Amino acid sequence: MESTHTQEVHNILRNISVKLSTKPSQESSVSKGDTKDETQTKTVGKRDILEERRSKPFKTEIVWFNAIGFLILHIGMVYGIYRAIFYAKWMTSIWGKYFIHLHYFIF
To answer: Cα separations (Å) of 95 from 89, 102, 105?
Structure first.
């Protein structure tokens, strides 16, 4: 009686592993009572995943919120450099450079 229960659990686990290792299009061919050997199931490796990724063309999507945010940051950087060169005193620029390096050591 113990062996039949163990055999049923083994069959259920094997069916689950077969369903996980098959593609969705192949899943319909695997029935509840169907038990395949582990040698017959297709395992998906790194090469299979890389080939599948290479076969599909990559579609680029622009996230406009992020693009506008980066544009604002870069414009602010250019404005800050302009202000540092033409309007700031040289002592302020040296103190700012020291403060940036001090920040890296503290945090």
So the answer is: 10, 10, 16
98 burial (CB, 10 Å; 0-12 / 13-18 / 19+) is exposed
The Cα–Cα gap between 93 and 99 comes to 10
The pTM score is 0.41
- Write down the residue that tokens 């009572």 correspond to: 33
pLDDT tens track for 22-48: 655 544 444 455 555 544 455 667 777
Site of tokens 């009686």: 1
- Tell me the C-alpha distance between 10 and 88, whole Å: 76
Cβ contact 28:4 at 8 Å: no
